[in-house]
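The aim of this short unit is practical: by the end, you should be able to scan a pair of folded records and say something sensible about each. We start with the first protein, listed as its amino acid sequence and then its structure tokens.
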Amino acid sequence: EEEFKIRFALAETAFLTGDSNRAIEYLNGCLKINPLADRVYEKMGEVFENKGEYKKSLKYYRLGLKITRETDAVYSYRASIAWTYSRLGQYLRAKKECEDILKKKSLVNKKTLGYTYVILGTIYLPLGEFNKAESFLKEGLKIRKSIGDKKVTAACYINLAINYYQIKLNIKLSEDFYKKALSIYEEIGYQRGIIIALLDLGVLYIRHNLNKAEDCFLKALSTAKLIGAKRDLVFLYDNLGSINCLLYTSPSPRDRQKS
């Protein structure tokens, strides 16, 4: 039991600091000690989701669902499965899963309920129902803040920022939401979250302030190198290359006046 606790704690630390392979190693060790520990399957699902391996993530969430089928914890796994469907672009399937959870609202704990609202908000954004998206995200944000769940609170701010920038064209409010998310991710040491917030801020700035965009991408690049986030590194180098072309090949205001 003590070895299990130590391995699981080490897995959580590795996950937060972006060392997914080490986290998987510790979690596999936990499963050898106790193959019926459902929280290990939940964390394994999170780790693979973070790696972008959504089908593997779904596999572990389904294993956790099977173990917890006769308990209230089943709703947590259903919510995680809904989130993974949304990552796979299966929005209607994810939406149905969330709606089924909300039908049993009285049996669902606050943490899972807040998460379900967040997922619905995230689903409605690509479906083009922006008012519904905002409403669900704000409801999820309120619940998750009330229970001190910082990681999902930050995710709510990210999604609200996307809504306000892409749909409502409110750059200032979008920037504020991204900065709130970044501050929370930095506070809890969630490296992948830091990269996401900096990437999104960089994209926000790229049309309005190239120097700020470059600064965000360089900071994200430093973190991505640290944790070996290969997909993010490709995106960052691409954007930094574009910014450098714009910054150092565009004529200065004085040169434009001369011409």
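Turning to the second protein, read its sequence before its tokens, just as you did above.
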Amino acid sequence: FQAEDGIRDHCVTGVQTCALPIYPEPPTRQVLLFNKDNSSQTQVSYSCQLGKLTPDTIVAAQVMGDAISESTWLALREQTGASYGAYAAAFADEGGNGQLSMESLVQNDTAAMAVKTFLDLGQWAKDQKVPAKTLAIVKYDRAQKYAQGHQSTAQMMNRLRSTYRIYGGLDWFARYPSVLSSVSQSQFPALLERCVGHEVVTVVGPVDVTKPQFDKAGIPVEVFDWKQAKLDYATKYNLKDVLKAEEKKKKDEEKGKK
């Protein structure tokens, strides 16, 4: 086959070559509410696809993720007390794929505020509004952690594996300092082009508490009935064990009511 970026499978012979879309357009933003009764906290998770990554832009994405993480902590922990912790990070894998993630476990009555914070921070980074001080701090911190990350034999093996798997080989060790030091906010918009406006945010908590907050804030959401989806899937594919367990659970609930 012939892929759009020119990669060709030379092991396959006697077949028609064809163009394969590698990066389809991501869907528009989705905020999905999952009901979890009797929960004192709500789990908020944000994820989006980054633009195609190279070894150099992976480092820019990591620095960007660190800078956003600093701000999630400040907004949801220090300034509002909505959570005991909030984090963000950028991840990369083979083939130039990457994603930006944010996570926090918040008080039920602050779920919509947490989601808005995450969405705003993605736009904030795309608009290149990260303070220069924050950028300098996270770059310095990442430089320190890089050296600390290969002190043991196991750590060094992981470092070597990722160096070959993602960064192209051992010359990356010589290149890394200059690549890290040259990271600038001008790289962020391209990284977030496929992210902002295309995020998937999941909110797991008591829907009767969380949904009114989103209605009031004007944030469109979808309540995803995961229990019904599970049953529909089991019915479609005749998963007898699942259906039997659901039937037993229903009977037990009916007995409890009597």
